[in-house]
Amino acid sequence: MKLFDVYPLFDIEPVKAIGSRILDSEGNQYLDFYGGHAVISIGHSHPKYVKAITDQLNKIAFYSNSVIISLQQEVAEKLGRLSGYPEYNLFLCNSGAEANENALKLASFTNKRSKVIAFKEAFHGRTSGAVACTDNPSIIAPFNANHQVEFINRFDLNAARASIENGDVTAVIIEGIQGVGGIYVPEPGFLEELHAICKQHGTFLILDEIQSGYGRSGKFFAHQYSSVKPDIITVAKGMGNGFPIGGVLISPVFEAKFGMLGTTFGGNHLACAAAKAVLDVIEDENLVRNAAVVGEYLIERSKNLKGLKETRGIGLMVGLEFEFDITQLRQDMLFNHKIFTGYSGKKTLRLLPPLSINKNDVDLLIGALEAILSKE
Ligand SMILES: Cc1ncc(COP(=O)(O)O)c(C=O)c1O
Questions:
Q1: Residues of 309-328 as b/e, b for ≥16 C-beta within 10 angstroms?
Q2: pLDDT tens digits for 129-176?
Q3: What is the CATH number of domain 14-46+286-373?
């Protein structure tokens, strides 16, 4: 059997990784400024994380959600405390798309509406509801296309208001920082006004913090640069540092009913051991603060790069938009300078490194970019 060929691949096979470094099967070492799509939060193979998962594996790896799994409560308590949402409830699942799917379902169950507002260029995942809220027609199959989703321009409050006022919108879903679309931070005051309109008309605000959360922005959640407390917050990616886990943080206004949401694997022992270790390391090593400080340094150091049109982002979620197509630049970074980076569109370099990187790592990145750009 062959693999279903849906991913264009780099000809590189990572075989080991530690901190912000990756080793491939040829013995090359790479600096990771992409974190495998923003997944690596505490750094690759952190010893406390490896030990927590290994110890758990030697005890019990899995049992279904029909028994007490105390680790779930431990994750919920620590996540509540570190994120500033101790009064919210947590539903555990396995991925970002699944978290959004459950968030949308929960909103719809509660206010009995079905229309959703999402934003142009948003990415929310590939399950049916999540992909219907993703503004990329090429990944929406006819089967997914029947959801009632209206896409409005990024940060267009008037369009949001006009639609929400009709009283039939179950939820507005928005990323804490738009990631796949090119790293766009909501303008000051936007989320507050959006939430106020939602509240007035019985519409829920879902903050997708799957990419922007877990400290990446320099605060636990990117929306915490505003004063908004969303009705529902979704997390995944950095939550497990590579171990698949997702979560839905649910405001106390929502009432749980047995059977309303569910999953076989969500919240299993191993995933919770991983998630708990991630939170422990984030706290012990002050990684949210590190993301803020090193992120600011990165943004400052990137300012004079040749051909740079705009720097966007905050913390360690940074988009560098150039005046030219960056395909060759990324190839040079990867194959000649051994640095992983991401992209958005043709011109934006997307940087999503582990939250544990330091200023020296930033200097290596900037040095490599300067070396390539000086030859242009
Ligand atoms: C903002 C956002 N939401 C949702 C998802 C989907 O997460 P997953 O791939 O874990 O389903 C992603 C993945 O890139 C994302 O960036």
A1: eebbbbbbbbbbbbeeebee
A2: 999 999 999 999 999 989 999 999 999 999 999 999 999 999 999 999
A3: 3.90.1150.10
Give the model confidence (pLDDT) of 318-375 as tens digits. Answer: 999 999 999 999 999 999 999 999 999 999 999 999 999 999 999 999 999 999 999 8
Q: How many CA atoms lie within 13 A of 297 on its CB side?
A: 16
End-to-end CA distance of the chain: 44
> Residue 176: helix, strand or coil by DSSP?
coil
Contact 238, 221 (CB under 8 A): no
Question: 195 in ligand 1 pocket by Cβ < 6 Å?
Answer: no
CA geometry: angle at 331 spanning 325 and 335, to 5°? 165
Task: Locate the ligand 1 atom nearest the alpha carbon of residue 98 and give its number.
Answer: 11
Give one DSSP letter per residue of 162-203, joined into a string. Answer: HHHTTS-EEEEEEESSBTTTT-BPPPTTHHHHHHHHHHHTTP
Locate the domains of the chain by residue range. 14-46+286-373, 48-284
Q: How many A from CA of 131 to the centre of ligand 1?
A: 10
Distance CA 148, CA 75 (A): 34
DSSP string, 14-30: EEEEEBTEEEETTS-EE
Q: Which residue has the tokens 């539903």?
A: 91
C-alpha 80 to ligand 1 mean position (Å): 21
| Cβ atoms of residues 104 and 144 within 8 Å | no
Q: What are the DSSP E strand ranges found in 184-241?
A: 204-208, 232-235
CA–CA dist 268, 280 (Å, integer): 18
Say if CB 350 and CB 341 are below 8 A apart: yes
313: helix, strand or coil: strand
Phi-psi region of 282 (alpha: psi -120 to 50; beta: other; left: phi over 0): alpha
Of the CA atoms within 13 Å of residue 307, those in its CB half-sphere come to: 17
Instruction: Output the CATH code of domain 48-284.
Output: 3.40.640.10
